[in-house]
Amino acid sequence: PGAEGVAVDLMLQVVSLMREETFRAAIEAITHFEARDLLPKMNVPVLCIAGALDLTAAPPLVMEKMASKIADAEYHCMSDVGHFGWAENPEAFNRLLVEFLRRKL
């Protein structure tokens, strides 16, 4: 909900230029990728940002659980966005990202 702007337009343009089989292969790879066993082995800072309205394969509960498996992960849920928080509320998304980077770099 509310995703609009130059970044969203560019993403839609890129996706619309994909061949159907490429798009289907990408969705298949995303939805069937399995690497949960690697999460506890990650030794880098990770920022997991979820959108409360996200109904995709990365809803808040999944993102929070993923973050809990990574030693140096932070989890944040943006209350007013879906899957494209970076486009739906770029100011809030960027604030979370910049604060995270300042603490970790």
Report on the structure:
By secondary structure, the protein is mostly helical. It has a single domain (6-104), classed as Alpha/Beta hydrolase fold, catalytic domain (Rossmann fold). It contains five helices and two strands; from the N terminus they run ααβαβαα. The protein has helices at residues 6-17, 20-32, 60-68, 85-88, 90-104; strands at residues 46-51, 73-78. It has a two-stranded parallel sheet. The longest helix has 15 residues, at 90-104. GO terms for molecular function: hydrolase activity. Keywords: Hydrolase. This is Alpha/beta hydrolase.
Q: Per the principal axes of the C-alpha atoms, what is the gross shape?
A: globular
CATH architecture: 3-Layer(aba) Sandwich
Strand order of the largest sheet: 1-2
Largest sheet: 2 strands, parallel
Mean pLDDT: 93
**Radius of gyration over alpha carbons?**
15 Å
Which percent bin holds the helix content? 40-55%
CATH-level-4 superfamily name: Alpha/Beta hydrolase fold, catalytic domain
* Class from secondary-structure proportions: mainly alpha
CATH class descriptor name: Alpha Beta
**Cα end-to-end separation:** 33 Å
Order of helices and strands: HHEHEHH
Uncertain residue ranges = none
Count of structural domains: 1
Number of strands: 2
Beta-strand proportion: 5-15%
H/I helix tally: 5
In the CATH hierarchy, the third-tier topology is known as: Rossmann fold
